Amino acid sequence: MRSSFQRSVSIFLAFFLCFTQISPISCEQKVSLTLYYETLCPGCSNFIVNYLPKIFKNGLIDVVDLKLVPWGNTKIQPNNTFKCQHGPAECFLDTLEACAIDAWPDLNEHFPFIYCVESLVYHKNYTQWETCFEKLNLKAKLVKDCVGSGRGKELELRYAAETNALQPPHKYVPWVVVDGQPLYDDYRDFISYICKAYKGTTPIPGCSSSVNVIKMGKKISPFCLKQAAISKLSTISSTFTSSVNRVKLAASA
Predict the structure, then answer these.
(1) N or C: at which end does the chain have fewer Cβ atoms within 10 angstroms?
(2) How many CB atoms lie within 10 A of CB 181?
(3) Taking the mean position of all CA atoms in its chain, how far away is CA 78?
(4) Stated pTM of the model
(5) CATH class for the domain made up of 4-252
(6) How far apart are alpha carbons 161 and 158 in whole angstroms?
(7) Under 8 Å between Cβ of 147 and 4
(8) What local confidence, expressed as pLDDT, does residue 119 receive?
(9) For residues 82 and 72, what is the distance between their CA atoms, to the nearest angstrom?
(10) pLDDT tens per residue across span 53-92
């Protein structure tokens, strides 16, 4: 019997392949949607796995310019190393996903990989991140070379600069921004804001009826606070550590 993780990835890919097409909507009419996140924050993985895929249904992706920024609440130390909120594993996975975006700039290529990794995070099985290459029939070399070299750190520093330049500054992650407007704790209603911001004339089924009614006063969604103490859950399993070492060795070979 297939695991719930395998089922969720398979179902998402089916929707993704059916609904991602060349959009007739011009770039000028599209609504920007930016997600600032960190890979091991439970609220971030929940949003990526259970909420964000909705834009790939009912034509919403046709009007959205989606950008993912994997940095979150990470701090740059005086020695120019990174201190991630959920420990070294998060630093590695942030870099991994940054490298995937860099290796495959097309959303149709990098989002399924990030969805796969975050599904593993959601199911508390992120040490198996390498299986996502095989599941999606992707070549791992470009991404692993990036992670194991200075390229990955360079990308993360760019994301750090972008995140730290946010106005208003982010308070937690996931931090969702629609056309420059942060949604704060109402981020799970992001589709409502997309529909409200869309100024094009082409009807979008995903924005019909009550879906574009912005609901206020909801219970605060789960998130990881910017000022929260660095988690002491930094005891990384030997499986994860060995896989990271293999990536570094492969890049230096």
Answers:
(1) N
(2) 12
(3) 27
(4) 0.82
(5) alpha beta
(6) 5
(7) no
(8) 98
(9) 12
(10) 999 987 899 999 999 999 999 999 999 999 999 999 999 9
